[in-house]
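Tutorial, part two.
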Amino acid sequence: MTTHTLPADFATSRSTLRLHKPSPLINSSARWWINGFPAIIVIWTAEEWARLTDRPIDAQECPNGVWCALRME
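Running the prediction step on this input gives:
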């Protein structure tokens, strides 16, 4: 069994506990790597797409009725 030790300043460097609440953009996306670069595909349902006021011009409609856009980070 491997044991891990924490750095000496761990307790003081982590003085604030924060919860990560993903934004709706992150909730409706998938992330992975393409050729070593982080990528994200954002997905909207047809209803979400209809409600968008600022639609990305490079988004594509998929045969199953959702809209998606690829982003390289």
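The beta strands are 29-34, 37-44, 60-61, 67-72. In part three we will examine how such features are distributed along the chain.
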